[in-house]
Specification:
alpha/beta; single chain; about 500 residues; globular
Length: about 500
């Protein structure tokens, strides 16, 4: 028996259980790379057992090199099972100008390490949406797809709002890889609805909470730091703490154990099945520690049963004793609380290159201003934002990219996302953030479109609560649906 397949596109089929190689980085954290022959032999064993889809990234240690060796051995005639292995990798650049040369170099590095003519699925991760370079990068990836260097394009850890920006800007995305489990159910909400509406499939990781969702932890006392064995468990212990703590996890495990006994399967089988039965999910990514331990035989039991109404009632009762994580998919990498293995990422995010750079006024040196390099700023004599003492004024801002094109034409919600990111980038260049905003003014062309605009505004400002005014303007300059201006006051820490 092999894991069932999912046809994502006519030229891309994946196993519904994808073998994830993120643990390679953890296994190599002492600086010693894994032996390519031994590690690639482990991949051959997975493929022969029917697990012929592998997920990795450019920063997962030597995962791409291991997979490249595995593919070379398969091409040389070593048996790999019934089908051609499918390779999914990720490109995770530092935000900055995403020129054709930069994007091509990133893709070529992975392509050469994998030694393939075309990468089956290139997944793009972007650290900070305040930097608009992700749109340029996606346009360049689309060009490489047209050239045949990439078969399909996906993204990782995009929230619903920014996935919307891509789709409404005409960029074809086939997958979004996000955390999705009984500990983290955010993807079942707006994300799933948007993906089903737009033909995008979810690749779910973290399904077993780094191994915390298993019989091993049922009935055990809460582990201390010394009992957490690897980066993955360090990360998902933070998720457990965020949803209600060790007691909440124990309630979930007890429910899964009861369901598992009904069907003669394991706790991980039930937890994985719960995710796979969500209609937007194409596959789950199960991590592998190559050469150390594997659960291939047990994982096949996932497809031996289905969850019925009684099963869901037991699970729902347990989930009711835990809290939903706040926010949307990917927020754990971009805002507090940072639910990552390394914890707080604030310093990392502050160190990323800024989208804009502040300079001093030539007329009033005490003033600082920000330019977004728009030709109209020079023609009309204005700045994107100005700081005077502790006060920052941000000009009326539209969804215009660096090339002067309208982002998300005809889509007020998508334009609002891009505008608020640009406002956040302007504030960051002047030493402030959205949390310093005290007033926003929103101008819409059509008052009937107020709600999608307001909901996006609410996602950004729900905890900040600035004063706000929304006005219908009969004619915005240019073919824009929304324009927003903001005021901020930077208070001393």
């Amino acid at each position: 028996m092999s894991a069932p397949l999912d046809l994502l596109t006519p030229d891309l089929t994946i196993s519904r259980i994808v073998t994830g190689l993120w643990q390679v980085a953890d296994m190599e954290r002492d600086g010693t790379p894994l032996d390519l022959e031994r590690a690639s032999s482990a991949l051959l064993e997975y493929a022969r057992a029917g697990y012929d889809t592998f997920d990795m990234a450019d920063h997962y240690g030597s995962a791409e090199l291991i997979t490249g060796r595995f593919l070379a051995r398969a091409a040389a005639g070593e048996p790999v099972g019934a089908g051609r292995p499918t390779v999914l990798t990720k490109w995770c650049p530092t935000p900055g100008p995403m020129t054709s040369a930069v994007v091509r170099a990133g893709v070529e590095r992975s392509r050469q390490r994998l030694d393939v003519e075309a990468i089956d699925l290139l997944q793009f991760h972007w650290w900070s949406f305040e930097h608009p370079g992700y749109l340029d990068a996606m346009q360049e990836l689309a060009q490489l797809r047209r050239e045949g260097l990439i078969r399909q394009i996906g993204v990782t850890n995009f929230d619903t709002a920014h996935l919307r920006v891509l789709v409404k800007n005409g960029i074809e995305v086939v997958t979004n890889q996000v955390c999705f489990s009984l500990l983290d159910r955010r993807a079942a909400l707006d994300m799933s609805a948007f993906c089903l509406e737009n033909g995008i499939r979810l690749l779910a990781y973290g399904t077993l909470g780094g191994g915390l969702i298993s019989e091993r932890w049922l009935g055990r006392e809460e582990p201390g730091a010394a009992d957490i064995g690897d980066w993955s468990q360090m990360k998902y212990k933070r998720f457990v703490d965020a949803i209600g703590g060790w007691d909440a996890l124990q309630s979930i495990l007890r429910a899964l154990e009861r369901v598992g006994r009904r069907h003669g399967v394991s706790v991980p089988n039930v937890a994985t099945r719960w995710v796979l039965e969500h209609p937007a999910v194409a596959g789950v990514i199960v991590g592998a520690r190559l050469g150390e331990r594997e659960h291939r035989a047990d994982n096949l039991s996932i497809f031996s049963f289905e969850l019925d109404a009684a099963d869901h009632a037991l699970i729902d009762e347990a989930l009711a004793q835990s809290s939903m994580l706040r926010g949307d998919c990917g927020d754990e990498y971009r805002r507090a609380p940072f639910l990552t293995a390394s914890g707080d990422l604030s310093d990392h995010l502050r160190a990323l290159p800024k989208a804009f750079v502040a300079s001093s006024s030539t007329v009033r040196p005490s003033r600082q201003w920000v330019s977004s390099a728009s030709s109209w700023e020079q023609i009309c004599g204005y700045s994107r934002a100005v700081r005077i003492g502790d006060r920052i004024l941000v000009s009326g801002t539209t969804a215009t990219d660096g090339a002067g094109r309208i982002v998300c034409p005809g889509d007020p919600a998508g334009q609002t996302v891009f505008i608020l990111d640009k406002i956040a980038a302007s504030l960051a260049a002047l030493g402030a953030g959205l949390e310093d905003v005290v007033r926003t003014r929103v101008y819409v062309r059509d008052a009937d479109q107020w709600e999608p605009v307001a909901r996006i505004h609410g996602r950004y400002f729900a905890d900040i609560r600035p004063a706000n005014t929304l006005l219908e303007i009969s004619r915005l300059v240019g073919d824009y649906a929304v324009e927003i201006e903001a005021e901020a006051i930077v208070e001393p820490n």
